[in-house]
Design brief:
CATH architecture of the largest domain: Beta Barrel
Largest sheet: 5 strands, mixed, barrel
Order of helices and strands: HEEEEHEEHEH
Number of domains: 2
Radius of gyration: 18 Å
Distance between the termini: 51 Å
CATH topology of the largest domain: OB fold (Dihydrolipoamide Acetyltransferase, E2P)
Strand content: 25-35%
Number of helices: 4
Length: 157
């Protein structure tokens, strides 16, 4: 009985510490909205950027879209998504306008991404069927949600 009680206390402490770690990550101040330089493309929905003047590199998750994660899958679709996103940013001189809306459970900043001409990057990925629409980050993308939903061919719910 004593072992179960100690184990229960240990599990409770672990859960509390994980919850506190998540809270600390999710409540970091978000970066300023504006123009950033794309440093690298991790996959079809995640990029690393830095400010134009230089500065710390941050990881950004594109709001409202999802593509296969290259860490777990080297499928042709996952590679195509990453390569197309690289191509989009190459054509834009590796510049992107980001509107930050929050942070996800992995510590990535979630943002809408627009090119200098106003094109919403996520909308391009959806129209070309390179990424899937997901309402998972709906709270993070109030400005683009309806447009992205239409681009994915889904009705509003």
């Amino acid at each position: 009985m004593l072992i179960y009680k100690k184990l229960s206390i240990l599990v409770s402490c672990l859960a509390l510490s994980l919850n506190c770690a998540h809270w600390a990550i999710a409540n970091e101040p978000r970066p300023a909205n504006g123009e950033y330089r794309v440093q690298s493309v991790s996959d079809g929905d995640t990029i690393k950027v830095a400010t134009i003047k230089g500065g710390n590199e941050i990881t950004v998750r594109l709001a409202c879209v999802d593509s296969e994660d290259l860490r777990y899958s080297r499928t042709p679709q996952a590679l195509r998504a990453r390569n197309r996103l690289r191509q989009i940013f190459d054509q834009a001189n590796m510049r992107v306008q980001l509107t930050f809306t929050g942070q996800d459970q992995f510590g990535r900043y979630v943002a809408d991404a627009r090119l200098a001409n106003g094109t919403l990057v996520q909308e391009v990925l959806l129209r070309e069927r390179i990424a899937r629409f997901t309402p998972r980050y709906r709270n993070y993308c109030p400005n683009s949600f309806a447009a992205l939903q239409r681009a994915a061919g889904q009705s509003q719910r």
